[in-house]
Write a structure and sequence with these properties.
CATH topology of the largest domain: TIM Barrel
Distance between the termini: 17 Å
Largest sheet: 8 strands, parallel
Strand content: 15-25%
CATH architecture of the largest domain: Alpha-Beta Barrel
Structural class: alpha/beta
Number of domains: 4
CATH class of the largest domain: Alpha Beta
Strand order of the largest sheet: 11-10-9-5-2-1-13-12
Bound molecules: 1-deoxynojirimycin
């Protein structure tokens, strides 16, 4: 039985859907809400509890929904408000939870607020965005760089001032130093919570506040940002990212979310920085419930890599805090790995302590699909079209994706035309491997999909895997390729061991006779069997030891 004091969101499993690429129900080549409703049973049977949706509210789609022009209505290519309400109902009817993407930092430049704001210097909404005089007619107000490089200041000729955009030029940042902005955005948060959503993923949350006196950012030697360090483009972004006021804002937002406690809701922040730095957003259980930890995206799929990762996470997110376990999303390259590595990664992600966030298609091992920059739809890629393709590929291998189309290709449902995603030509090409890699084909037998299903079922049958303490065993010098950790209940009456062999040699297992194997990556469908004598090459197992 789950320990009653552990809130649901700390025990949950999250599946991310990028609506545009999931399932197209009306044959226009673009995924939609009705399509998602039709596929909800798939996610339910797979075994996830919570679904996070990338944005589907009104937007000119210049950044495919992350440029919102109306937070309270639905973009017509995705559906209608009735369909959205039905989606919320249908998710709940399946005992599942729904998390929306909340873009607080910026709006679209087509949002009526920005249209008003840019119309004149004395418009009442002028101060809803961040406007400054340049240092000269062609010189921006200061040296601040956008998150994606280049100056984040953009000159508006009509009023001869510059507005600030942390991300792309058509995504002007809201000015949270204006209390009316804060209230308006909290109003939107409350609106969706009243509609019944169970939480939010917070887009580039760590950019909300910038230095109020607009001091220049200092020089840095770093050419590119990384998952662990958001400094880059030869600049330390101490005045633009992770500002102390944003940490305080996390607590204000938490209070708004806590107004809705039946059921309890949660927020998870997209933030960048070292594990130690981003931990601060969670405060003392009074800030964000969780933050994404992206270090995992660059961690090698090895015993040593994962061992260092859990030690880092356990050090900075001890109970009652909870880490997140992330291996992909709509901005990152899909990691290339062997089938065995994919199974080991899934076992790690679903059994280590932390809330797993699984990006659509990971469960069938969907692959990164290279798409030339010249054909890209992604606005980052179109901005960087001048970059030679080999440089873009090199940067991608470093984990920074210039052309995010490559990880957003349509979900591969079956081997029919367009992978069963749409009867029309999809908005992005499907991966060529779809005839041999799709849901229908993996529904039977010893597949990666069945590996995910078996693991998610295990989590429900053995809740100690959801809430148990995490104890990792130091790597045994004789078997340096084996990762071993144990999940234990508070009364220590139950414990489950997870052993992952990342090496090509079998490893003998010595354990008590009362041990049973609950799951093996080699035979996910097999169910419980007696204790094996060895761990096969590249095998991961979950063991129950009765006391
Ligand atoms: C982060 C989102 O994940 C990304 O897709 C988006 O383009 C930017 N924030 C801007 O909203």
């Amino acid at each position: 039985m789950p320990e009653p004091s552990v809130p649901w969101w700390k025990r949950t499993t999250v599946y991310q859907i990028y609506p545009r690429s999931f399932y197209d129900s009306n044959g226009d080549g673009i995924g939609d809400l009705q399509g998602i409703i039709e596929k909800l049973d798939y996610v339910k049977e797979l075994g996830f509890e919570t679904i996070w949706f990338s944005p589907f509210t009104m937007s000119p789609q210049a950044d495919f929904g992350y440029d919102i022009s109306d937070y309270l209505s639905i973009a017509p290519e995705y559906g209608t408000m009735e369909e959205c309400e039905r989606l919320i109902e249908e998710v709940h009817a399946r005992d599942m939870r729904i998390v929306l993407d909340m873009v607080l930092n910026h709006t679209s430049d087509q949002h009526p607020w920005f249209q008003e704001s840019r119309s004149s210097r004395d418009n009442p909404r002028r101060d809803w965005y961040i406007w400054r005089d340049g240092r000269g007619p062609r010189t921006p107000p200061n040296n601040w760089k956008a998150m994606i490089g280049g100056s984040g200041w953009h000159k508006d000729d009509a009023t001869e001032q510059w507005y600030w955009a942390t991300f792309l030029p058509f995504q002007p940042d809201l000015n949270y130093r204006n209390p009316d902005v804060k209230e308006a955005m909290f109003g939107i948060v409350r609106h969706w919570l009243k509609q019944g959503v169970d939480g939010f993923r917070l887009d580039i949350f760590n950019a909300i506040y910038k230095d109020a006196s607009f001091q220049n950012n200092p020089f840095s030697r770093r050419p590119l940002p990384s998952e662990e360090n958001p400094d880059g483009f030869f600049q330390k972004n101490e005045n633009t990212i992770n500002h102390p006021d944003t940490f305080a804002f996390a607590k204000e937002l938490r209070q708004v979310v806590d107004e809705f406690d039946d059921p309890e809701r949660f927020v998870v922040g997209e933030v960048f920085g070292s594990t130690e730095d981003v931990r601060r957003y969670c405060g003392d259980q009074d800030g964000l419930h969780m933050v994404f930890l992206f270090k995992s995206l660059q961690t090698p799929c090895t015993a040593k890599g994962y061992s260092a990762l859990i030690q880092d996470y356990e050090r900075h997110f001890p109970e009652p805090a909870i880490p997140t376990l992330v291996f992909g999303n709509h901005d990152r390259p899909r990691r290339s790995k062997t089938e065995a590595q994919a199974r080991l990664q899934a076992t790690f992600q679903l059994t280590a302590r932390g809330v797993p966030f699984v990006y659509y298609g990971e469960e069938i091992g969907m692959q990164h699909r290279p798409i030339p920059l010249a054909q890209a739809k992604d606005p980052i890629a179109t901005q960087y079209r001048w970059v030679p393709q080999w440089v873009a590929n090199w940067i991608t291998r470093k984990g920074i994706l210039l052309n995010r189309d490559e990880c957003r290709t349509p979900m591969q449902w079956d081997s029919s035309q367009n992978a069963g995603f749409s009867v029309e030509t999809p908005w992005l090409p499907v991966h060529e491997d779809f005839p041999n890699r799709n849901v229908q084909q993996q529904e039977k037998g010893n597949s990666l999909l069945n590996c995910y299903k078996a693991l998610l079922k295990l989590l429900k049958e053995h809740p100690v895997l959801q809430y148990g303490a995490m104890e990792w065993k130091p790597i045994n010098k004789e078997h340096p390729k084996v990762l071993h950790f144990v999940r234990t209940s508070a009364d220590r009456m139950q414990s489950i061991d997870v052993m992952l062999n990342f090496g090509k040699h079998a490893v003998p297992l010595a354990h008590a006779s009362k041990t049973r194997i609950l799951f093996s990556t080699l035979a996910p469908e097999q169910g419980t069997v007696d204790a094996p004598k060895q761990l096969a090459p590249f095998e991961g197992i979950v063991l129950y030891v009765s006391h």
